[in-house]
Input
Amino acid sequence: MPSTFRIYSSSAGSGKTYQLTKEYLKLALGSDDPAYFKSILAITFTNDAAGEMKERIIGALRRFAYPTAENQEDALLRDIAAELAAEGQFSRLADTPLEQQQELRRRAAATFRLVLYHYADFAVSTIDSFVQRIVQAFTRELGLPATFEVELDGDAVLQSAVALLLDKVNRDPNSALLSRSLADYALSKAEEGRSWNTLPDELVQFGRFLLSEPVHEAVEQLQKMSLQDYRRLHETLRQRREAIEQQVQAVATRALATLDAAGVTEADLYQGKNGVIGYFTKWDERLQPDKEANSYVRATMEQDKWYSGKVKTAADKQRVDAVKSDLTDAFVELETLRATLLPDYVLVSGMMPYLFHVSLLSELSKAVDQLSRERGVVLIAEFNRRIASIVLREPVPFLYERMGERYLHLLIDEFQDTSVLQWNNLLPLVENAVSTGNLSLAVGDAKQAIYRWRGGEMEQILRLHKNETEYLYGRVADDELRGLLEDRYFTLDQALEPQNLNVNYRSAAPIIEFNNSFFEFVSKGHEGLPLVGGIYDEEFWQVSPEGVPHPPAPSPAERGEPDDFNEFSRYH
Output
């Protein structure tokens, strides 16, 4: 299969928008059909980026179609014409470069008119806008009201859902288990000496996980457990924690009993209460990760420093000598227990305070759904999660039919900030496009990922660029979903074509050299982090533009100034 899914790794200042504009124009003008632009979907991440891409594309089309004295020699036009000619996209009547450029201008004029007349079909949008189109196409399947509003304020809905959940305790006679869980939570807070009336705020804060894309799969798994399941789990964890504490305490108690039997006090031992006797007295510290045996205890065990300065007589030394063997054995046993049991203890202790919150996730999710139905709203954070349950399992022709559009090419910008769910929702459309031999592409730079807070996953572009897609579907817990993704990626694997945009047109040579050296140092200093090494590998290096043609800066016409758009009728 030819390489029809191109992955551009685009470093800062390397002309990414220029490259996207050129690829879009090549696709739109590579056909004699002036309406071919309707089969191209370009997706960006922000409204500003979508606006800039539209302006560049329309500005270039206008410039090609209606040249002025200033832009008769257009580098972008020349590059596109040469590349289309090399791909055999012109008839035999256009043999020379000049004839090819004239043919390209003719196509641009026809396409430009149609874009202006059918601007709604000019599919350059943000990924959120495109996702909303899918939602509107699958309203019934997603269980949404026929007419709904998009709610942007997730916290406001969560606060109302928490109030609804707490009110349910007072009014619903079937919520005894929920009431009991709330009472246990309040008691646990009181036992810790903390305020118990912060529950509403804590539930709102924890409820944000319901709307978080990075952990949505884990949240779905947790919601499959009932309140009774969580109570049993809480009891199991409590018993495990107490069992570990009892094991450690038993060794410490035995050691202290040995000291008592021999009549040895802290005054007899090296560094007194700060030494070995304190090690056993404060046995609970042995279960804290940051409370290792101090230097005094280590000196006692490793350098045989047992006596305090007050031990002068042979009888005093004999008393201390009598306990040395038993205390050494107890120390070794306690350190062994610490090494083997501490990970479990930390995990259990970390889970227990939040187990109550997790147990209410399912109930809180039901409350959010109830409020959404009553108000006729859908949280924007839920869009991708809901769509993922439909899109990956439906045949692609059906998706296009419901959307009312069929796209042969997909161009994705800022791919490093695309979330896992967003990409999974686009994957069937991309797979269908490349399987028919039509070019699609994604552009991004893992080094510039900034949207992790809303689910952006920079590992996706890294793995795709290195053709390591097994990492992307292999981490999915759901067996059925993992199988569906593996099938989709199988087609994609055959079509991947990684490319790099490494010429930095924005920075001076010294800055480029500094960046190369700095990030090479960072990569070599984190050899245990393969993702860091993957980002800053041998292909990361940027080069200065000396001797490399610079992409032309956008002209006023290319920027799409409003007065030009208002006068588009003069071009007909």
Observations:
- The longest helix spans residues 314-359.
- The CA atoms of residues 255 and 327 lie 6 Å apart.
- Confidence is low (pLDDT under 50) at residues 552-572.
